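#struct-pred

JT: dropping the chains for the assembly here, can someone run the whole complex?
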Amino acid sequence: MKLITAIIKPFKLDDVREALADAGIQGMTVSETRGFGRQKGHTELYRGAEYVVDFLPKIKIEIAVASEDAERVIETITEIARSGRIGDGKIFVTELERVVRIRTGEVNESAI
Amino acid sequence: MKLITAIIKPFKLDDVREALADAGIQGMTVSETRGFGRQKGHTELYRGAEYVVDFLPKIKIEIAVASEDAERVIETITEIARSGRIGDGKIFVTELERVVRIRTGEVNESAI
Amino acid sequence: MKLITAIIKPFKLDDVREALADAGIQGMTVSETRGFGRQKGHTELYRGAEYVVDFLPKIKIEIAVASEDAERVIETITEIARSGRIGDGKIFVTELERVVRIRTGEVNESAI
Amino acid sequence: MTEIEYALNTFYLLVCAAFVMWMAAGFTMLEAGLVRARNTVEILTKNVALYAIACLMYFLAGYQLMYPSEGVNAFWPGIGFGLGADNTAEAVTAAGSEITYSAMADFMFQVVFVATAMSIVSGAVAERMKLWAFLAFTVVMTGVIYPWQGYWSWGGGFLNAIDYSDYAGGGIVHMAGAFAALAGVLLLGPRRGKYTVDGRARALPGANLPLATLGMFILWMGWFGFNGGSELIISDVGSANNVAAVFVNTNLAAAAGLVAALLAARLTFGKADLTMALNGALAGLVSITAGPAVGYFHRPPGRCHRGVLDHRPGQAAHRRSGGRDFGARRLRHLRPAGCAAIQSGGIAAVAARRHRRHRQLRVRLQSRRVGVAARDNGHPGESGRRARGTGLCRMRDGSLSGLCPRRRLIRLPRSGVAVTLRAVFLGPARLGRALFYPGWWSRA
Amino acid sequence: MTEIEYALNTFYLLVCAAFVMWMAAGFTMLEAGLVRARNTVEILTKNVALYAIACLMYFLAGYQLMYPSEGVNAFWPGIGFGLGADNTAEAVTAAGSEITYSAMADFMFQVVFVATAMSIVSGAVAERMKLWAFLAFTVVMTGVIYPWQGYWSWGGGFLNAIDYSDYAGGGIVHMAGAFAALAGVLLLGPRRGKYTVDGRARALPGANLPLATLGMFILWMGWFGFNGGSELIISDVGSANNVAAVFVNTNLAAAAGLVAALLAARLTFGKADLTMALNGALAGLVSITAGPAVGYFHRPPGRCHRGVLDHRPGQAAHRRSGGRDFGARRLRHLRPAGCAAIQSGGIAAVAARRHRRHRQLRVRLQSRRVGVAARDNGHPGESGRRARGTGLCRMRDGSLSGLCPRRRLIRLPRSGVAVTLRAVFLGPARLGRALFYPGWWSRA
Amino acid sequence: MTEIEYALNTFYLLVCAAFVMWMAAGFTMLEAGLVRARNTVEILTKNVALYAIACLMYFLAGYQLMYPSEGVNAFWPGIGFGLGADNTAEAVTAAGSEITYSAMADFMFQVVFVATAMSIVSGAVAERMKLWAFLAFTVVMTGVIYPWQGYWSWGGGFLNAIDYSDYAGGGIVHMAGAFAALAGVLLLGPRRGKYTVDGRARALPGANLPLATLGMFILWMGWFGFNGGSELIISDVGSANNVAAVFVNTNLAAAAGLVAALLAARLTFGKADLTMALNGALAGLVSITAGPAVGYFHRPPGRCHRGVLDHRPGQAAHRRSGGRDFGARRLRHLRPAGCAAIQSGGIAAVAARRHRRHRQLRVRLQSRRVGVAARDNGHPGESGRRARGTGLCRMRDGSLSGLCPRRRLIRLPRSGVAVTLRAVFLGPARLGRALFYPGWWSRA
Ligand SMILES: Nc1ncnc2c1ncn2[C@@H]1O[C@H](COP(=O)(O)OP(=O)(O)O)[C@@H](O)[C@H]1O
Ligand SMILES: Nc1ncnc2c1ncn2[C@@H]1O[C@H](COP(=O)(O)OP(=O)(O)O)[C@@H](O)[C@H]1O
Ligand SMILES: Nc1ncnc2c1ncn2[C@@H]1O[C@H](COP(=O)(O)OP(=O)(O)O)[C@@H](O)[C@H]1O
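RK: done, full complex below.
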């Protein structure tokens, strides 16, 4: 199994979620993060002093999938989350050794 | 070493933490996330319009453990975090190549 | 490639970020978490009752790097984030199978 | 008028003005609580700036434009700046009931009204309009449009001459404001993120409900000043009773609106909706503003449960009509007309239509929209139907001839359902805000 | 009474009523700031709804039930609705000191008290009770229970006849409220998440301390209206002095409570506790409410550091006792009785017990609980001990016979430790809130 | 003075005092909104505690120290505690214009000023000073330093004797406060996290802008009481007009400051800055406080666009100067002197310098700092230049001899740029707060 971690722009979340649901992905875990990369932050004013906001709000999506689904999921995300502008984000794929569903104790593929 | 990532219901956090402490686990890192899965969200009202809250609040616990402790930790979490209702969450296990304790520079088992 | 996950004290973030930028690291993703470890929480008062705040605010930095850069990055973080006091945090290293840049679809080293 | 009466009236007007000023904070908190978190700072800036600009512009040009010593002609008042001199002690004591409070206090009370009116636009274009465009419009609106129109009907202009009745300021304050709001909304389109790619609407829930609730409470409190102060004098028994009745009615209207909205949500969706309740209270407040002194007045003994009115503000209203009162008196009733713009093709039209025609248009439109609102306007010197606001009690004709000839009267829905619907659907629309916000994840 | 005096009194009462209304916002912010984030919306909804319902029910039925023109018998007032007619100018000028302010203003001032009383229950059952059950109870409480009992002792009922003294509303306002709160708490049990599986209590820290602090400030400000307005008239030197003294005392009581609680936390735990400080201020406010006019009155020259009283509200109190004043006067003192319910087996018991017996029970119970509170009640026509509230100054008997015969007097703790403990432990309990909230991570 | 006049004045002072008390909430919200989230609870605790302590200390010792019946000598007032007796009805009616309001109301109004003054220190040492050290200082400051100095110049001390003019309280209220603040800032150094290892400053943006905005609105509202109440009487036409003018000026000053700051940010940085706007409003309020009654007074007909003054508070000011007024009158103007401390080597120096010298020092220093502020002080019995506050209109000398002899007059910047700069740069400094906060990620 694979753990797919996608960093995307916040406003794409709903679209990505729906596309994944259409692609048959049942579950995912989402968190708010801040990103730092090629996309530069903007300056803001505070009490007459400018300062740079380096970190931009991003959404991190974590999805555990069976290895054979990984490709499809990556493609879906790449396609839907793409706006073509700098800062669209990244997808990271790592190997998952084990998955457990806490409710039933099922493991691996059947737990996803 | 293994990195154990557990997605659990928020109100189970205290119990899980205590159980892990009893099981000899020294450290963990916790974050707030939102989950999407079989457990469906609820509808809420806002200015006379209903809308669905898809994402449910979940807690993500990350624990680095020596490989031989992994089994025990997984069992503890599975047992304590289980409420038997849909949405209890998942445990993901990945291989950890290296752990460093920043304070001392110790690595791997001794750093956990 | 490696995924380097560092748990550090919040007030070290700016220094670490700058040091990494100097070390040629282009991107990273940051989130707020709470840590539990050897560093004990403090007690607070609430309506005449004391309670312990177990979880201390920490910052989690995730950095995808080419394998050959991993060592350098780990060293930089260890050095800069160290204050010498308990609670300085940990660095976890996991193997990254794949990285995709969403904007262009580039993969692996060129996507970082 | 004795010095002490003059002093009491002035103090009363100033306290009320401070309460109305406080409403600016209420609008700000309400809007900041209801927009998405990403727009919070912008909406805060807009609201503080609009209040400040409204005060400055109305001071610099508006007040003299609206109430010139002598207008150039019936259409153009001529340009003037600043304020006039205040009353001397001799003039006050000599004047009898003509001079009842300080001219400065009158300006103070009027200026906060201008700011309140401007908030209609602010709420409607929240999350849609560029800050500086909005502020530029604020300058024009509060420095020229509002006072110029005010001159036509209140300051001695041609509408004034043809006996146009705009007691409530519905035409001036609200139609202009709401037209601007509507124009803005049409021009700007829906907020980004409001619709999915396939056209479904998304709920964009507000960021901070305690803040919104606080805003509602602030507005509720401030409205005591808004309505209560519009009596303008308090120094005799009749006026004091009127002011007290206005307080009671204002409070009950808000309470009734809140409960009605809460029940409506319960009946429709099966659960409570805080944002609906807040809107309901505001709808109640807006409604009662059209006639706070007559909402519930007094129950003659033996006619319990009739819950109706017999309004006799006699002495006070009469006495008051003598003096030059800087026009604030005509501001008394804020006609619940946030949506009035829908009837209006433009600001010029404000002038062009007679009162009666205007009324009919509005009635027809509003009836169409909610199916329940039937309105009627008394006209000068005639007995008329009473504004009820909360609709909690049934209507009754009251004979008022000669007492408050320009009072704008509105007949409100008769049944409980109607009241509920009205509070629920009209209220938000009327306030000119409320329907336009929210959302969790949207544009970074 | 001249028209201008009538007008000033009415205005004063209305401003105070607006301040008391503002307390509803204070309670809301305080509770919203102290509950766990997951319950914020519910507590907001409860608080806005309870205020609205209290206003409506007391208007619809409560006021006539509590003050019927003529009661059916000493136990049952008979049903009535709405309000009565207001005073005419002729009646006012003819009446001398019998009629001192508008009947509408009286209703306004009373209605906000009902809402305040209802907040006791709200705070206690926060995070425990279903919304709609709570609202249903609010309807019954504010429409029937509260006014019905009010009739017994204030509106002409049997307690009134047997000379039952409930000046402070401790029996009516608070015992009923607190009993309901207690019953609710017993019935509903502790909040989920309050205890671990092995029975240890968890701290459930509040979500939003700036909000809670704001709530405290709002209450502090509103309390000026609550206590200050309870003088009911201000139009002569004596009353004006009284009102001023009430303001000073109210302010000092809150300040003393805050400082005492802060120090108590410091001494007990070695550090400051904001939530304790806020509770301390509220405890001070609640305490002083029992006798704001006599807390600290004036120091005759040469008796420095005595810090005591010599209260002579003579003219004002006397004059006032003549007219029909719609009962608000009896509401003057909110007896610090949030926990009074502990003494009470039920609402019926309110009626059954004589004042003296009631007092003794209470004293015994409270003494048991904190070991420090010694209380004494003056009884009609007798000289009595003075309420001090803050306990910062030592007691002294004052001879008041005939001046304010029904004033409820309380003797408070004598030592600094006692004061501290009192502020710390009684205060929260009294307010009927505070001990029941909090938590970070709990049920999803 | 008739009883009703006395009552009206007392009521007016009490309402204003409640508004000033409300400013404590405003400061608290403003500071809580602007500090970093980690310091929120501490700043909340500091602010509630300082208000409470100021009230208690000024009550316990300060008031008698500042206004002893008879001072021991010109330097040391002698120790006294508590308050004096209030006025009797006989004394009031007999006194003519000597006694105009309740002594208790005067204390109430003074005590809230002490708390306000203490806030200068609070804002400056925000995020820097240990809580208990700060509170200990508060005790000394409000119980000894402030009133002792007050005695020197207002209560009958040696400065009073040599005709030292400190109408605005600049020397007493602000120099002491600001010196303490400066000392604290120098002692404590910059906040941790303010500078990077290589010495660059970091912006430490505030945590909660809606809260800060709310705080600004609260202060704006409270300032009506602060300035408006400083007229001290309202019971005749002249005073009532003055109070109304003060309201208008206060409102316009804040509005002008806000707009100026907004524009300054726009011109300098190309975009709006909410925190600048909030500071601008506060700067406007602080500025106008130096002379609210004369900011914009009235435009004689025919002299439009002159926007100037002709101030004739004649009767009121004159009459007032007769009675013993507990000194609050001298508190009327809060001199915009948050940064006055820079001129001062120590608190003792307050006493040592004559007014004129002091003024010159200040002028020189301030001119150096902003390049625009030119000031001038009228001196007793002489005609002088008028304080404008907003600088929106040009200056004009007005001949006032004998009317308000101790009024402190300030000439303000003449050009629009100057006004802008002043609002932007001086304002924050003056308030003694604002420059010292913020930050996202800092020390765990
Ligand atoms: N090396 C990296 N490790 C972890 N996260 C990264 C890395 N590089 C970029 N990111 C994340 O991806 C986001 C987008 O990256 P950025 O370089 O701005 O644009 P793009 O992906 O279009 O090249 C960043 O905001 C950051 O959250
Ligand atoms: N494939 C997945 N990848 C990542 N997280 C998942 C996945 N499936 C479920 N989750 C997480 O687990 C939580 C519980 O899953 P759910 O399907 O609702 O219940 P259950 O675990 O009882 O089957 C979800 O809210 C989500 O946070
Ligand atoms: N086994 C672990 N798994 C995951 N995170 C850990 C683990 N141990 C420690 N941490 C994280 O590292 C932080 C610091 O650890 P701690 O034991 O307090 O100090 P130190 O790293 O100096 O030994 C903790 O707050 C926690 O966030």
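JT: nice. The interface with chain C takes residues 3, 17, 26-31, 64, 94-103, 105, 111 of chain B (CB under 8 Å). The mean pLDDT of chain B is 88.
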